[in-house]
Structures are given as structure tokens and as C-alpha cells.
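hi! just following up on the protien thing from before. the input was this:
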Amino acid sequence: MSAPIQQREPVGYDRSFLDEYRPNESFYLSADTRQHLASLGAVPGEKLPPGTYLRQVFNRLLIDLSWNSSRLEGNTYSLLETEQLLELGRNAKGKDLREAQMILNHKAAIELLVEASSEIGLNRFTICNLHALLAQNLLDPQVCGRVRWKLVGITGTVFLPLSGPQVLEECFDQVLHTAAAIEDIFEQAFFVMVHLPYLQPFEDVNKRVSRLAANVPLVRANVCPLSFVDVPQLAYTHGILGVYELRRVELLRDVFVWAYERSCTRYSAARQSLGEPDPFRMRYRRLLHDVVAEVVRGCLDRTAVVRLIRRYTTENVPEEDRDRFAEIVETELMALHEGNIARYRLRPSEYHTWHNAWRS
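and the predicted 3d structure came back as:
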């Protein structure tokens, strides 16, 4: 893979690479590797709803995954610049606006994984919507979330992706059907990291989609997410080229395993510092989100907030939980700041307008 491109023989898409894979019989990851990753990523204690782990480390993961996935595409934003963009909405001076858009698109895609954690899967809805979010304002709106219908090329490789809309559709469905049939979540995650870029089902942004899609089975199983923290760009590129040109997964597999080990180290420490999740907050997570978002977007004062909480609790919360629910809403509003508004999908301008009125 380090040989000059002029010395490498052009190669096209080989469907047998996909056809020969048999879910739960073929494995890219050895049994020992799968067991090792499971022991690292597992959440001790009782089984919790999908996405619980992701929500606990959401603020840190949002920055880490947005930055690292963008960095692997050649984005030049620093980690600090990424943090300022996501938390304060500040574009870095002298940077291409497309770089900021790429990072903001990652934020939207990660929020989808959180908000729809019980509904996502390795299916067309999830993968196409991840593409639409990651490609927003970077590609023609007509191609966002759609399987491509034209020939594409990839810079820096002699690999020639598959062409022909009909066969692309067939292979895309086959990739998703095969992935969904895999029982081991880590094999699932790695399978989509291999086969989505190899197929190139979309006009562009395929590798970004594969990295976010690799998190889907992890989110659903409520284990540590994968943020590609500290992954060298060259190591990842060589791994992808090994798949493209040789149909070999060893290099990319080593990157995947190492990246997951690093992610587990990072987020297990963060999670331990947070303690165990509050079951009450988990039960009313969506309703809490809606109330706080409505308060801020409506720029409501304290009197209006009391009326709003009373209406929401009367309509949606059992009588025995209403006082606790109201207390938590008030606590959330008091703790709201620029660094945590992303969880409510609020813009900095909305927060500042509300906060100025709230303090007056």
C-alpha cells in the first residue's frame, strides 16, 4: 500500500468478496478478538436501554467523533477549533467553510444515533439518513441519501468502484442484509467499515458513513462507542487501500481493534466519573428534552415555565411523578450553558436570547 500508485495494477469491484461472506460462519475478527472487545466495551450491571452509554458520554463523544472522523478525511480543524465550532458556533478563521460544514454534519449524524437509538439499525433508513446528514450542503441535495447512479472515481487509489444503478442497488441491499444477519456486534461494526467503502454506494462521503454506521450496533447494544480517537490518518488510509485494491482486511482490522481499545479507555473513565444513570431521567428523557427545548425556543420567563411544566405533566406524567419531573426540569434549566445545549438541539443564538431574558 505504500508503493507508488503508478506501480499498482488497476482493479475493479469484485462481488465475490461480498458473496463469499457467510454471516456467523465467516469472520473478519477472530473469536479471541471479539471476546476481547466485548470485555472492554461492556457496561457492568443491569441491561439498560439502547443508547444509554452514548448519552452518558455524549458531550465528549460529540467533539471526539466529529473531529476524528473529519480529520481522517483531511480536515484541518484542530480539536480546540472543533470544540468552539460545536459548542459556540464559531468558525475557525482562515479555514474553508466546507471544513466547518463537515464537522457540523457529523454533529447532526451523531445526534441521530442518540435521538433514534432504539430505532436505528443496519438498514436503508439508517444508512441513507446518515449519508443525507453527513453530505448536507456538501453535495447536490438530489444525491444526499440516495444510492448513486453515476460512475465515481477515488483519488489516491487504482481501485475502480462498481458502476450501474441496478447492480449497485442489489449489492447495497446485500451488504445491509448480510450485516443485519451478523450476531456479533463487533463483527457487524467492522463488516460495515469494510463493505460500505468498498461498494461506494453513494456519490461521496462513503467512508464517513461507514465510520458512523460502525457505531450503530454498538449503540443498540449499549456498549462503548467508537470515536477513532488517536487513529493515524496514514494507518487508516492504508487499511482502506488494502480493502480496495487487495480485498484484504488485516490492516483495517488492526486499526479498528486499536481504535476501539483507545475509545474504551477514554469513555470508561468518563463514565465512571458520572456514576450510574438515573432511571427516572431515562424514563422521561424525551419529555424532558421537549420541555427544555420549548422553554428556550419560546424564550419563556419563569411564570410561563411553571404553566408549561404544569401542562406537560398533566398530559404526560402520572400524578405521583409530577413533582419530581418539575424539579428536574427546573434543575436542567438552571444548569443549561453553552457547553451542553447540543443535547437539546439548541442553537447558540437561541440559548443567548433566552438566557438574557431569563436573568432579567
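The beta strands are 11-12, 159-160.
The CA atoms of residues 68 and 115 lie 21 Å apart.
cheers
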